[in-house]
Automatic annotation (TrEMBL):
Lineage: Bacteria, Bacillati, Bacillota, Clostridia, Lutisporales
Molecular-function annotations in GO: ABC-type oligopeptide transporter activity; ATP binding; ATP hydrolysis activity
Keyword Nucleotide-binding attributed: yes
The protein, known as: ATP-binding cassette, subfamily B
The species this protein was found in: Lutispora thermophila DSM 19022
PROSITE patterns: ABC_TM1F, ABC_TRANSPORTER_1, ABC_TRANSPORTER_2
TM helices/strands, residue ranges: 16-36, 56-77, 130-154, 160-178, 247-268, 280-301
Amino acid sequence: MGKFKHIEDFFKKYKWKYILGIFVLLFVDGLQLITPKILGYVTDALSAHTLSMKEIFFYAFLIVLIAVFIAIFRYLWRMLIIGSSRQLEFWLRNKLFSHLEKLSLNYFYHNKTGDLMAHATNDINAVRMAFGMGVVMMTDAIFLTASTIIIMMVSIDIKFTLIALIPFPFVALIVTFFGKLIQKRFKRVQETFSSLTDKAQESFSGIRVIKSFVQEESEINNFAKANEINLQANMNLVKVWGAMSPLVIFLPTLSFVITLYYGGTLVIDKVISLGQLVSFISYLELLTWPMMAIGHVINVLQRGIASMTRINEILDTEPEIHDDDNTLDIDNFEESIEFRNLSFTYPGAKVPALSDINIKLEKGKTLAVIGKTGSGKSTLANLLLRLYNVEEGSILLGGYDINKIPIDLLRRKIGYVPQDNFLFSCSIRDNIAFADENMPFEKIEEAAKITSVHDDIIGFPNKFDTQLGERGVTLSGGQKQRVSIARAIAKNPGIMIFDDCLSAVDTKTEEKMLSNLKEVTKDRTSIIIAHRISTVKHADEIIVLDEGRIIERGTHDELVALGGYYSSIYHKQLLEEKIAGQE
Ligand SMILES: Nc1ncnc2c1ncn2[C@@H]1O[C@H](COP(=O)(O)OP(=O)(O)OP(=O)(O)O)[C@@H](O)[C@H]1O
């Protein structure tokens, strides 16, 4: 039962619903077995002319009554069994999502979003099917098949039953075989459809590039190709469905032919009565569904187990970064930062992203990091946020080893402005108040004023309630950066990390923001990662990174005087500014 360990808790809660559901289902199966008996009795009584009109009405009423009971109890088992399987789907989806949310960043670099979405849809659906219709089909396949055949043998004729049922096992075999094939082709349809939607989505998000490169025609052709592949996959599916359905209907017809021929002779020879023949035909009809169920149930259960195994793999993955026995029992630390002999190589990478980094940053001071792209600047931020574990050397915060600081405490104390300025598809207000949904509006407004985005927001018709994202307003790169900075500031953190977050604003806005930010960073320990000298020149210490190593360090004046890398980009940027000023 190891495969179901993650859903044990669910079954503890829902087992009585399942047990009751199966009882109701068995009751319905039992009721279904009565009607053929009545039909047989009525036929015999009619041929013997022993039935009064009143009795005919009574039996007709009885058949209707049984049908009504079957309908009511069918509704009941559907609610109990299929309803529980829907609850399982809901429960498992929540469990999977909350587990994924807790996994480390590295997990998401190594697993494609599309695959994770497939687990959340296809695999969960397959598990639901196994514990919904799978349970129903298994119960019917066993009970309805066995009880119907036994009744046919006992109350009609053993040999007749055995002969008439010869085509039936083939129904089960065909459904098993075609079911597997259908599953395979259905999967292919899903895959081709998902690449079709991916293609469309990419074309729409990349519409600027497509238009500027005049590539509409080629995009249309590519889409048509993907659409053609999807059509082929659908046609292949239609073919197997098309072959299976007539076969499944044809085989029971053979049984009816045998029944008519062999049963007819038995009636003529008076071995069985006409009524028994009528009952027999009704029982045969009843058997078609459980025979198909035998075929389906194997596939449904196999798929359910395979999907459960894939879901288990995710649920068994432990977050790489978590609090453990070494975690200190502290609820605060002083905002000083020290990188001590720190080296770091990303999992799976060959060259280190950082080597031998030594920096001491006192509380309230500002460190600026500058360097070529890929020199390791963002890696410093990733390690400070403990998105990766520090393994070589150490990072000390307030004197505590970062690996021993409770992760929640650490991240709560850091205001981080990421390089990509990711914003959520909700209102600007909710984006800025992301750290605390009960944040007072004054704080949200103040953060927007500090980052000079307040006037832009007020200019939108819905102001702070302006919706961002696909169906909302699209902010400019600079506006996005400023909202993202406001989000970090509104959190009121002790440490601030700005990862290249002023690159998309013009120098004038930058100047204004820097003077505002000076207020914000005055009492906070800050790390500013940037490419522009104008962003970093007021920092208490500036380091220049190259291939993960500190190659220059000092204040702006010291570094300009040094005449190295920093000084060369300073002069280059000065020249650029001059040229821009003359234009
Ligand atoms: N998740 C990762 N897995 C493996 N290697 C990575 C990962 N992230 C970054 N790297 C590599 O680590 C090195 C440092 O990257 P980092 O993002 O710190 O550079 P950066 O200085 O911030 O660059 P930029 O200015 O372009 O943002 C680069 O060689 C990069 O390719």
